[in-house]
Design brief:
304 residues, four-stranded antiparallel β-sheet, single chain, 31% helix, globular, 10 helices, alpha+beta, eight-stranded mixed β-sheet
Length: 304
C-alpha cells in the first residue's frame, strides 16, 4: 500500500495591506507572506473511496466531511482515485495562520504524488513552481483566498484577491507566534474595516540582506485588519502589548485576520527564550517559535 506524508506549514502574513474591494465583495490585498516550521501533518494512503479522519491536539471542532477544504482540495486532483486521509491537527483553527488553507494545499500536493502526477523535488512539476501556480491558482482560489499562496510554502508577495502570487527571497526571521485562543470571525473583521482603499507596498521591494533589514522594512508596513480585529477582540491588543514588551522583540504584529500574533527577533536564541517564558507565563495560550522562511523542502510530499 502506498503512503504519502505531507507537512502543512503555518502561513504568516508579515504585511497585509487592503487596497480595494470588488463589486462582489472580495477584497484586494498586497501581502508579504512567509511560512513557519510549525504546522499540521497529512497522511494519505490508497483507498477505495476518498475520506478523511481528523486527530491531534487541535482537532476539536474540525469537520471531517465536505466542509473541510482539505478534503475538497484532494477531490480536485483525485478523479476516480480513492484515498484514506488522516489530518493530524497541530495548528489552532480560525487563527489567521492559514491552518485550513495550508491543509488544503498539502492535501492537493499529496494527492498529486499519490496519483503519480509528480513524486520528487527533481520532478518538473515541483521544479517549476511558477508554472504550477499559474495553472492551478484559480482552481485553488475557489477553496479559499489563502490556498494558492500555501501551495509551495515559499515566501511570496500576494496581490489581487489572492491569485497573483510572486515568489520572493526573504531572509529567515526568528519569531514567536502567540494565539490567545479567542475565536475571530474573518467576515466580522473585514466588515469593521473603516477604509478599504489603502496604499499598497512599494512596487519594487528592496533587497533584504538580513533579518534586521527585513524587520526594518516591515515596520514601515501594516496589517490593515489589525485594528478592527482588536476592536472586535481586545485580547489581541493585550497579546501585542506583551509581545512588544518582550525582551529582544523588534516588531509585534497580527497575522491574517487574527487572532494569532507574531513577535520578530534579530536573534534566534532571544526568540527561543521568549517563547519559553510566554508559554510558562500564559499556559492557556498557544505559543510556538522558530525560524520563519522557506519551508518548501519540508512541505514536499514523501512517499513510503
Amino acid at each position: 500500500m502506498t503512503t504519502v506524508n505531507v507537512f502543512a506549514p503555518a502561513k504568516i502574513n508579515l504585511t497585509l495591506h487592503v487596497t480595494g474591494q470588488r463589486d462582489d465583495g472580495y477584497h484586494f490585498i498586497d501581502s508579504l507572506v512567509t511560512f513557519g516550521p510549525m504546522g499540521d501533518q497529512i497522511v494519505l494512503q490508497d483507498g477505495n473511496t476518498l475520506w478523511l479522519t481528523v486527530e491531534g491536539p487541535e482537532a476539536a471542532g474540525v469537520p471531517a466531511d465536505m466542509d473541510n477544504i482539505a478534503l475538497r482540495a484532494a477531490m480536485q486532483v483525485a478523479g476516480a482515485r480513492g484515498a484514506a486521509m488522516t489530518l493530524h491537527k497541530n495548528l489552532p483553527v480560525a487563527s489567521g495562520i492559514g491552518g485550513g488553507s495550508a491543509d488544503a494545499a498539502a492535501a492537493f500536493r499529496g494527492m498529486m504524488v499519490l496519483g503519480e502526477i509528480g513524486d520528487s523535488p527533481a520532478d518538473g512539476l515541483w521544479a517549476s513552481p511558477d508554472v504550477l501556480l499559474e495553472t492551478q491558482a484559480r482552481g485553488l482560489l475557489v477553496l479559499g483566498a489563502d490556498v494558492p499562496m500555501c501551495l509551495f510554502s515559499r515566501p511570496c508577495r500576494v496581490r489581487g484577491i489572492g491569485e497573483k502570487i510572486a515568489l520572493v527571497d526573504l531572509p529567515d526571521l526568528p519569531a514567536v507566534l502567540v494565539n490567545p485562543r479567542v475565536p475571530v470571525a474573518t467576515p466580522e473583521v473585514f466588515c469593521a474595516l473603516a477604509k478599504r482603499d489603502n496604499a499598497p507596498m512599494p512596487d519594487v521591494l528592496p533587497n533584504f540582506g538580513d533579518a534586521t533589514a527585513l524587520i526594518d522594512f516591515l515596520a514601515t508596513c501594516r496589517n490593515d485588519l489589525q485594528q478592527p480585529a482588536i476592536e472586535a477582540v481586545p485580547e489581541i491588543g493585550r497579546v501585542l502589548d506583551i509581545l512588544d514588551r518582550t525582551e529582544g522583540c523588534k516588531l509585534a504584529r497580527m497575522t491574517g485576520s487574527g487572532a494569532t500574533c507574531f513577535g520578530l527577533f534579530a536573534d534566534a536564541q532571544a526568540a527561543r527564550d521568549a517563547a519559553r517564558r510566554l508559554f510558562q507565563e500564559h499556559p492557556d495560550w498557544w505559543v510556538a517559535g522558530g525560524l520563519l522562511g522557506d519551508q518548501s523542502a519540508r512541505a514536499l510530499p514523501r512517499r513510503s
